Amino acid sequence: MSEEKRIVSLPQTKKSKAGCPVCKRPSATRFRPFCSARCADVDLGRWFTGSYALPSAEPVDPEELIEALEKQQDEEDER
Questions:
Q1: Which of 13, 35, 54, 76 is the most buried (most CB within 10 A)?
Q2: Is 25 within 8 Å of 35 (Cβ atoms)?
């Protein structure tokens, strides 16, 4: 039996009109989705400093979390 190879082309997607997420200028192919290396670095810096972090309702105390997990484990061991 001969195998027939078939090439399927993907549908063309429209290019996004959205600009650089930092300065809103048109994005450059080389730095996509940013317009320049500078804007890419600014965005990376925002990630490093936690600017994109989502605040939580209550900060979790690591010691309380450990105690809760130990208590849960003890309850499961008793069963």
A1: 35
A2: yes
